[in-house]
């Protein structure tokens, strides 16, 4: 059965002009783009999105980075979308990412790593609801 996941093209990748190339990878991997929007987010919006990480040392830098410029927010759909997007993204640290993955191709470092993808069903549901209203997902 088709499953939905949530993804962000992060500010580093948007700044470098990789948006279209990353979208092409996503479509080539058979994801359907259910909804997509480009916007800048505030620091409080980033803090709310990454609340699970609020005790981690990298949290302030992560929130500064995510609110540093426009991002592309997407809801994606396919069978096994959550696991398949994580595979397509590659490891969090691009130095450890497999050949052919989006982070291997487009990410510079662990903090500027080009793309976000939900890691489980419950986080996907939270993240989709955080950024998209129901009427944007029909
Ligand atoms: P992801 O699911 O692969 O994006 O990784 P996590 O959910 O664990 O972390 C969220 C984001 O925080 C990552 O994509 C990184 O940009 C950043 N991050 C995670 N771990 C570290 C770290 O050890 N150092 C720094 N600087 N950033 C990190």
Strand content: 15-25%
The quaternary state of the protein chains shown equals single chain
Find the CATH topology.
Alpha-Beta Plaits
Q: What's the main sheet like?
A: 4 strands, antiparallel
Residue ranges: pLDDT <50 for 5 or more in a row?
none
* Share of helical residues: 25-40%
What would you give as the CATH superfamily?
A: Nucleoside diphosphate kinase-like domain
CATH architecture: 2-Layer Sandwich
> What's the total number of strands?
4
Strand order of the largest sheet: 2-3-1-4
Number of domains: 1
Q: In a few lines, what is going on in this structure?
A:
The chain contains seven helices and four strands; from the N terminus they run E-H-H-E-H-H-E-H-H-E-H. With 138 residues, the chain is α+β, with helices and mostly antiparallel strands. Helix 3 (43-49) packs across helix 4.
Q: Which labels suit this protein?
A:
alpha+beta; 4 strands
Could you explain how this protein is built, in words?
It is built from 7 helices and 4 strands. It is an alpha+beta fold. The longest helix is centred in the last third of the chain and has 11 residues, at 121-131. The two termini are 17 Å apart. The model has no long low-confidence stretch (mean pLDDT 98). Residues 58, 61-62, 92, 110-111, 113, 116, 119 line the site of guanosine-5'-diphosphate (GDP).
């Amino acid at each position: 059965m088709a499953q939905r996941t949530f993804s962000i093209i992060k500010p580093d990748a948007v700044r470098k002009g990789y948006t279209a190339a990353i979208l092409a990878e996503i479509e080539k991997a058979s994801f359907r783009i259910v909804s997509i929007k480009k916007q800048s987010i505030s620091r409080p919006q980033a803090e709310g999105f990454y609340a699970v990480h609020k005790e981690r040392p990298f949290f302030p830098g992560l929130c500064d980075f995510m609110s540093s410029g426009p991002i592309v927010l997407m809801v994606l759909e396919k069978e096994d979308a959550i696991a398949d997007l994580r595979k397509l993204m590659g490891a969090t640290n691009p130095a450890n990412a497999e050949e052919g993955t989006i982070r291997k191709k487009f990410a510079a470092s662990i903090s500027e790593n080009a793309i976000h993808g939900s890691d489980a069903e419950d986080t996907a549901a939270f993240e989709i609801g955080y950024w998209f209203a129901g009427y944007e997902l029909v």
